[in-house]
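User: Hi! I have a protein structure encoded as tokens and I'd like to know what sequence might fold into it. I'm fairly new to this, so please keep things simple.
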């Protein structure tokens, strides 16, 4: 009888250990699935942010292009430009051309603006 109890007890212990091992394995699998899903979510959010950043950069490029073109034509029509206005317009053009990789369409306009005489301070 003692041998039978020892065998049954040993079998129960083995079954209990196996159950604990399976429970731990399931817990690790769940954690791995959650981490993989979290990584996919981060990648999706990064992709969305990259798309939005590109769209915003393009929008800003067109806004700067329009503003530089308008102001440059106004200064050329006036025949002169204030020193600070010229400095600001050149900074805008640099941001458009170098920072946002503008296409150079405004280079001739900026050359003409920079050739204008400076307004005299009153």
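Assistant: Happy to help. Inverse folding works backwards from shape to sequence: for each of the 122 positions I chose a residue that suits the local structure. Here it is:
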């Amino acid at each position: 009888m003692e041998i039978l109890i020892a065998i049954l007890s040993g079998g129960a212990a083995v079954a209990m250990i196996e159950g604990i091992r399976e429970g731990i394995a399931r817990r690790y699998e769940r954690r791995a699935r959650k981490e993989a899903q979290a990584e996919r979510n981060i990648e999706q959010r990064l992709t969305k942010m990259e798309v939005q950043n590109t769209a915003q950069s393009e929008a800003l490029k067109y806004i700067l292009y329009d503003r530089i073109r308008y102001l440059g034509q106004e200064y050329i029509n006036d025949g002169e430009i204030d020193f600070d206005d010229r400095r600001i317009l050149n900074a805008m053009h640099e941001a458009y051309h170098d920072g946002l990789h503008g296409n150079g369409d405004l280079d001739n306009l900026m050359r003409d603006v920079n050739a204008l005489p400076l307004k005299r301070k009153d």
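A useful reference point when you look it over: The radius of gyration is 35 Å. Feel free to ask if any position seems puzzling.
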